[in-house]
Amino acid sequence: SWAGPRLGLPLGVAKMLGKTKSMMMKVSPCSVIGCPCECYDGKEDDKSDKKCKFCKHKKGLHVVASASDAVEIPYPPYWDHNDTKFNEMVEMPSGACDEFQKLVDQTYRSAFTKDRQKHNPTNPKVPKGYTVKKVFRNENSHAWQEYACRLADVQHRDSPIEQIADVKTTVAWANIGGAKADRLVHECNEWYLFHGTNPDAAASICKNDFKVSRAGSSTGTLYGKGLYFAESITKADEYAKPNSGGNYAVLLCRVMGGNVRYTAEVTPDPEDLVYSCIEGPYDSVCGDREKTRGTYREFVLFDSEDVYVEYVIEYQRKY
């Protein structure tokens, strides 16, 4: 069987913005790992949830070659860059860092999990808090184009999406930033979520995107092999590592949850969860350990084009 979608393989902006359907059909290999399908087999006007006659995976998982140079996609108006190609991490001023400190404070919880013991064996204590040291905004034209078109694809589906409006990071951001929360497309379940890492890896991810070879290598695969995100800084911090200066890092990502498969099972079936997203009607998984274990919820994505890393937060732990 196939293991899951090939994270990091570009969907291509031609999918939504102006290339002919005949061209799409010629360059649409399946993005599921190990799938031999080289071209979507079906009708040109099939919707994204229709299955390929050859490999049985959804049309939406068949990748279209990138055409980012041929279209214009607006960039967020608060970015420093807004035209041509660019890939730069912009350091935020100290005043902006204060808002991210509030975000960290408001999403902090003291709950301990086995993952903290596993990933922090020399000091498994839950920190009493975190001090933000630096914040960078990731302005990457290519990655943004891919994400924006994926978001547009979901936004124009025929069936409405059941919204999850209580994601703690997004709620906190709305309380802190006010109108800044309006930048998210709530009807697509677009949220801000954390992903723990280290400063060097954070810079690499911003430049090159997530890699499938690393998916699940740090967080595990309780809900399937994918990209794991947290609404609490404490959960994301379990997987963060320091640099030589003692700074840890989390990514604050814009995540397109779409149709969410919710599970509160203690021992979920990861294969079933992945299958429901890559071949079924769902786009992501919400694993609710807060309900079953009193710890945290996690959100799992199986396609890196559903994620845009917008900020890197460097911080230090407080004990």
Structure at a glance:
The protein has 319 residues and is of the alpha+beta class. It contains nine helices and nine strands.
Compute the separation of the termini in Å.
46 Å
Number of helices, counting only DSSP H or I runs of 4 residues or more: 9
Q: If you average the pLDDT, what whole number results? A: 85
The total strand number stands at: 9
Gyration radius from CA atoms, angstroms: 19 Å
Which percent bin holds the helix content? 10-25%
Biggest β-sheet, characterized? 5 strands, antiparallel
What is the N-to-C succession of helices and strands? HEHHEHHEHEHEEHEHEE
Q: What ranges have pLDDT less than 50 throughout 5 or more consecutive residues?
A: 1-27, 65-70
Give, in spatial order, the strands making up the sheet with the most strands. Answer: 1-2-9-5-3
Q: Which secondary-structure class do the elements indicate?
A: alpha+beta
Spatial shape:
globular
Report strand %.
Answer: 15-25%
What does this structure look like?
With 319 residues, this protein is of the alpha+beta class. The protein is 25% helix and 20% strand. The protein has helices spanning 21-26, 94-106, 114-119, 141-155, 168-177, 199-208, 233-237, 270-278, 289-293; strands at 87-91, 129-140, 190-197, 227-230, 248-256, 260-263, 284-288, 297-301, 307-318. A five-stranded antiparallel beta sheet has the order 1-2-9-5-3, with helices on both faces. A four-stranded mixed beta sheet has the order 4-8-7-6. Helix 2 crosses helix 5. Residues 1-27 and 65-70 have low confidence and may be disordered.
